[in-house]
Amino acid sequence: MNSTKENSISVSNLSKSYGNILALNKLSFEIAKGELFGFIGPDGAGKTTLFRILTTLLLADEGNATLCGLDVVKDFKKIRQIIGYMPGKFSLYQDLSVEENLSFFATIFGTTIQENYELIKDIYIQIEPFRKRPAGKLSGGMKQKLALCCAMIHKPEILVLDEPTTGVDAVSRKEFWEMLRKLKENGITIIVSTPYMDEASLCDRVALMQGGIIMSTNTPENIIKQFDTPLYAVKSHSMYQLMNDLKTWNQTESAHLFGQYLHLTIKDKDSNAIETYLKSKSHQDFEIQQITPNIEDAFMRLMANKSK
Amino acid sequence: MKRFKGFVIKEFYHIFRDYRSMVILFGMPLVQILLFGFAITNEINNAGIAILDNSKDAVTHKITNKLLSSGYFKLEANLTDYKEIEPSFRKGKIKQVIIFENNFAKKLETENKANIQIIADASDPNTASLLSSYTTNIINKYQVEMMQNQELPMQINPEVKMLYNEELKGVFMFVPGTITILLMLISAMMTSISITREKELGTMEILLVSPLKPLQIVIGKVVPYVFISFMIAVIILVLGFTVFGMPVQGSLFLLLGECFLFIIMALSLGILISTITQTQQTAMMISMFALMLPTILLSGFIFPIENMPLPLQIFSNIVPPKWFIIIIKNIMLKGVGLGYIWKETLIIIGMTLFFIALSVKKFKIRLG
After folding, report:
1. Strand order in the sheet with A189-194
2. What's the pLDDT tens digit per position in B162-180?
């Protein structure tokens, strides 16, 4: 029982399918108390399904999961007391004001805004000027902040956030993650899912998900370390031409466009080969430099390896 | 309990902030009852008629006057020739033509017999038969008056009394019907929509993950509509009484109690609908087609159940409004007590329990 004490969430062999579609395929992982844990993966990876099973909203076909030692099937009533859940879709009452939403959620969890104000203060202060405004008329970032407040107002032990930053502008996204880091200091276990891979580096640990399986679970640093081949950033006057040329090159292992650079791995370990090839394709003013991979590169590589 | 209270307050916010629905909710009873009372009525007033009087004597004049002073008819045209009959019907202003034969008074005196022909526009069969029977009645009455001086060999004189609604007011039928329709519509449709709205918006997900019990969620949803529906029932009764003189012969307390029971029945039906639908739109469609149509057509509100084919008669037994209409008609018009309507009351209670049991069984504590 030692593990349940330390681990806030533990999942073993969890499977769930919708008809013929396997949404989750034998997932197992452990999340420690107070950890900020991210599930990163594209749409359809199974993140929402996993979260709904953890929040007792769905039943798994196989396997089991416990939150704070409570079983998600048997003890669903107790679990519903200790978790805070923010669904992927904005799910507050649009016709209720900011304040009314917050106090409604406080009431149904048997608490009051005053009681846990300290916990949400940092976030709530930002939306407080609009507290009389209906939630439906808030901007995207504001809505997410309000939803987060509502999910936390009862001081949950575990906070489950399903894609909280989807559809939110870059600045608000950054602020949102800063808030999560602060919350973590209160000892709350936070699991969060996101399709944005750049957000992965902000988590303590991440699980890279695709097609219902976890491809890798590790700290963001270690996931990057798993990148076992040199990575080059290439730029040319005609990026479209460059993309086409590199995609058709027999030495190319992977080529992805990242901003104004093309991230490239090659089978040949000699970077001079790139230069020679590009010259042969009459590219001018091109730039080639070796770079440290970021988490997104690592994820792309994992995905490519898995599909081989 | 505090949680529950918070939930109910939230529901009232939803209702009162949706101005458009509020206007519909309270405007609808007003409009419906006035429409049914004044406009949509099967009583006939001032139906246009034409008269072709070939005789133009004292007797035909008297009969014409009797007809026109009855209030049922309005003279649109005096015809002079049979050829004018068809075109005047075509114009659409008249519903009936009355033709007196030649030498009407003389024939009546000498032969003891004279003919009146009534031609009615039967493209609307109900109106046509009503008009012709009004006409015959008036003529018969006149005949009886004429014969007062003479001794008849034998005479049967039926005396008709229209019990419970002596003036045959259509509104006496429409008030109970309107109450039934509106309570059904508001209670069942509004609750089913308000529960499915939470599903659609995704807030149901959060409510389920909260410590609120499913029963608290459902009852919390229903409570505001109990109030609103009850208020609407009272509004209709007051309107019926003040505007149309619709009496409440029986105990008002019993009547309100039965209304309350029917509201609970309709609400539990609404909850049942919401447990089997996922979107507001399907909930509304089901409420409209599965509830409204039987309520209007099969409850005996407009079309008498006795005239339906047997399968429909049997089917009408599972239409809850049928029983409610029987109950309120009996209370309002005949003034009976619970002793006469306990059977119907029990049926509605049974239906309510059935719907509640079924919805509790169907209510999902999880998604999907």
Report:
1. A83-86, A158-162, A189-194, A36-40, A205-210, A213-218
2. 777 776 677 777 788 888 8
**pLDDT given at position A60:** 92
pLDDT band of residue B368 (cuts 50, 70, 90) is: low
**Residue of chain A whose Cα is closest to the Cα of B13:** A96
Chain A residues interacting with chain B (CB cutoff of 8 angstroms): 52, 55-59, 76-77, 80-81, 83, 85, 87, 89-96, 100, 103-105, 107-110, 150
* CATH label of the domain that carries residue A209: 3.40.50.300
Record: contact A92-B203, CB cut-off 8 A: yes
The reply to whether residue B209 touches residue A85, judged by beta carbons under 8 angstroms, is yes
- Predicted confidence at residue A6, as pLDDT, reads 64
**pLDDT tops 60 at residue A5:** no
**Domain match, A110 and A242 both:** no
CB-CB under 8 Å, A56 with B10: no
CB contact under 8 A, B366 and A94: no
Read off the pLDDT of residues B91-104 as tens digits, 9 standing for 90 and up: 888 889 999 988 88
Give pLDDT, residue A4: 41
**Considering only CB atoms, which chain B residues are within 8 Å of A89?**
201-202
Structure tokens at B230: 């009850």
The answer to whether residues B129 and B180 belong to one domain is no
Number of domains in chain A: 2
> What is the SS3 assignment for A266-305?
ECCCCCHHHHHHHHHCCCCCCEEEEECCCHHHHHHHHHHH
Do A38 and A174 fall within a single domain?
yes
Report CA Rg, chain B.
28
Residue A73 included in any domain: yes
Query: How far apart, in whole angstroms, are the C-alpha atoms of residue A13 and residue A27?
Result: 5
Its pTM stands at 0.77
* A105/B210 touch (CB, cutoff 8 Å), yes or no: yes
For residue A253, what is the domain's CATH number?
3.30.70
* 3-class DSSP state of A116: coil
Q: Are residues B126 and B9 in the same domain?
A: no
Q: How many domains would you assign to chain B?
A: 2
ipTM metric:
0.79
The alpha helices in B147-213, defined as continuous H runs, are: 171-184, 191-201, 203-209
Closest approach of A88 to chain B, Cα-based (Å)? 9
Q: Are B3 and A76 in contact (CB < 8 Å)?
A: no
CB A149 within 8 A of CB A102: yes
- Chain B residues whose CB is inside 8 A of the A100 CB are 10, 13
Closest CA of chain B from A202, distance in Å: 26
- B72's tokens: 């049922």
Min Cα separation B8/chain A (Å) = 10
3-state secondary structure of A208: strand
Among A185, A219, A253, where does a domain finish? Answer: A219
